[in-house]
Amino acid sequence: MSEFVKQSLGSLIQELKKDADKAQVSFEATSVLEEGVSVKSTVRQFEFKFDEPELLGGKDAAPNPVEYVLASLGSCQAIVYRALASLKGIQLDSVTVKTKGDLNLQGFLGLDSTVRPGYEKIEFETIIVSDESPEKLERLAQQVDAICPVLDIISNPVKVQGKLTIQSKHELVG
């Protein structure tokens, strides 16, 4: 599998070196509120659910958005480990990323305007099983942290622009 990753990424890198304009890509998602606080999101051909624990008014039928953020960080780290290790010929037997986020519900519930509604702190631990040298794996970890897109997104400000579109039910019929 690592060889497939290496070939795929190697081909992409060569293509982008020839035409840097192809490096700019966009990703899209659509999320629709369903019953209660349940949400169905669609990304490409994939659908996945969001919900809240009962404590927060949900039915606990799926992870909530902030849990998906943690899972996204861990998944992105693992993917970047595989990608870089494949390109550099580093053997990884397994990669497990454990993430934890601390959030104060007073911010989310609007009870204290001095408390942010999102995570106050996120921690992650990467557990690697490999016979490679610790020095080589530590260098790899530094490189992974430097280029992991989700780590970058949650560590650095990102320009976010929202837009509200209001439709009456009468406009939807027809």
Lay out the secondary structure.
Blueprint: H1 2-18, E1 30-33, E2 39-43, E3 46-50, H2 65-88, E4 94-103, H3 105-108, E5 119-129, H4 134-147, H5 149-155, H6 169-172
Antiparallel strand pairs: 1-2, 2-3, 4-5
Give a written overview of the molecule.
Its EC number is 1.11.1.-. This is OsmC family protein. It is an enzyme of class 1 (oxidoreductase). It comes from Pseudopedobacter beijingensis. Pfam families: OsmC. There is one protein chain. By secondary structure, the protein is of the alpha+beta class. It has one domain (2-157): K homology (KH) domain (GMP Synthetase, Chain A, domain 3). It has six helices and five strands; from the N terminus they run H-E-E-E-H-E-H-E-H-H-H. The chain has helices at residues 2-18, 65-88, 105-108, 134-147, 149-155, 169-172; strands at 30-33, 39-43, 46-50, 94-103, 119-129. Strands 1-2-3 form a three-stranded antiparallel sheet, with no helix packed on it. Helix 1 (2-18) crosses helix 2 (65-88).
Given as residue ranges, the uncertain stretches (5+ residues, pLDDT < 50) are: none
The largest β sheet comes out as:
3 strands, antiparallel
| Helix run count | 6
- Alpha-carbon distance between the termini? 51 Å
* H-E order: HEEEHEHEHHH
Strand order of the largest sheet: 1-2-3
What CATH architecture label applies? 2-Layer Sandwich
